[in-house]
Structures are given as structure tokens and as C-alpha cells.
Amino acid sequence: MRKQNILFNLDDTLAYCNKYFSQVIEEFADHMTKWFDSLTKEEIKQKQLEIDLKSVDQHGLTSQRFPESFVHTYEHYCDLMEKKKNNADIEFLRELGFKVFQIPVEPLPYMNETLQRLKDAGHELYLHTGGDEPNQRRKIAQLELATYFEHRIFISEHKDTTALSDILKTIDADPNITWMIGNSLRTDIVPALEMNIHAIYIPAETEWKYNVVEVNVEPKGAFLTLNSLSEVPDAIHQYIMGENPSRDDIPSDYLDIHDQEENKDNLFT
After folding, report:
1. Does the predicted TM-score (pTM) go above 0.90?
2. Residue 262's pLDDT band (cuts 50, 70, 90)
3. Which candidate, 66, 80, 73, 57, places its Cα nearest to that of 22?
4. What is the β-pairing status of strands 223-225 and 198-201?
5. pLDDT in tens, 75-112
6. Which of 6, 15, 98, 168 is 20 to 30 A from 197 (CA-CA)?
7. Could you tell me the strand order of the sheet in which 223-225 lies?
């Protein structure tokens, strides 16, 4: 069996991430409704989402961005309601936002077993994660991912097709034997398909709306959707051996559900 180059995303592919953001956003909305009693939690969360997404476009996936979205949301409503801004409240919100980066990281089910099986099969494993260096290195260390990826770890603040292209050039990857595995349609799957490599999509239990986009790229290789990390080794093996894995496209009901929820006021679906 020919050795494959297999790139993994980290957040919500190998380890939980979005659920912690969801918890902290709930805390933020609770505090905001105490300060602005005419607002609903859903209004507040929608405004925070709007501000956060704009900041991603400008600043990428840096940790600083998320706490500042709390501060800017607070300042927005202070200006709107002619309420005096309180420096203590601003500092409290900033600290609340940073709390999400202090939570010990938790691996998704079958993380170690899946990576070990692929490593034992002789494949070359790479990690391509989005975010700032200190936070992502913290997670990598806590999960002991160097066991599987060694020095083959790439961290991108702007995780897009350009970033993936640079990685593929660095590792001199043959597209015919290279895979990208992740939960984000925007930052994992679309870039992989645009670079003509194989893609495996594993939908997250809770998804950030930023990650959900339409896939309008015609795959040149495999494009699979799986339910669990545990299915990855067999799916890759079947493809290499010329067999067809059971799921080979994004479930239409998944995108339909997310399209319906675009108008809801929740950050996570």
C-alpha cells in the first residue's frame, strides 16, 4: 500500500473546541442582559457573532480577536443606549473572553487510536491548525500530539487555500496521495479541493457559522464525509485499494439544516 500524506485539522477534528466558546458566550450574554435589561440574550449573541466574524476577516484566527468581540459588543450597546462605559466592566469582559483559552483541551473520541493506526500503517501525518502560536502549541502539548506529528506541525493565523498551498509546497506533496481531514468546510475542505488533494469532512457536533459555506469546487480526487475519526483509516485504505467508501459527499440535510439556521441568533448550531 502506497504511503499517504495525511493532514489533520486540530480544533473540532481531533479535540473539542466550539463547545467551550459556546459556554463562554452564554456567560457573556448573561452578564450583558444584567447591564442592558432591554436586550435579549439572542440579540446580544447575534451582535457578538457579527463583530467577531468581521474581525476574523481582518485579523485571522488570533486569540485576541475573541475577547475583543465581547468588548466591542459592550461598547456598541453603550453607544446605542447612551450608557457610560465602565472600564471595570470592559476588563471583566476581556478576561471572560480569554477564559476559553485556559480550559484544558479534551480529545475527541478515537483521536489516539486513529492517529496510531495511520502511523502504524506507515503514512506521514501532518497537523495544520488555525490560530495563534501560543494557544495552539498549548493544545498540542496537552494532547501530546508530537507523538504522531513530530515536527510536521503547521499553524496558520489565516487558514485558507494560500496557507495550505504553502504547506503542500514545503512538504513537496503529491496531490494524488495527499489528504486533508477536518470539520470546517471553509478552512479545511474547500482549500483541499481547490488544491486538488483528497478531502475527508467530519462534521463537528457544534459548528461555528464561519466554518459553514457552500462547496462549489469539483473534486479531482476523493471527497468523503464520515461520522467519526474512527472511520478514517478504513476509508483511506478502501480508497487506496480501489474500493468506494459508503459516504462520498456532504449530506444534503446537513447543509439544509445550517442554511435554515443562518437566520437564528445562535453562534453555534
Report:
1. no
2. very low
3. 66
4. parallel
5. 999 999 999 999 999 999 999 999 999 999 999 999 99
6. 15
7. 153-156, 124-130, 5-8, 178-182, 198-201, 223-225
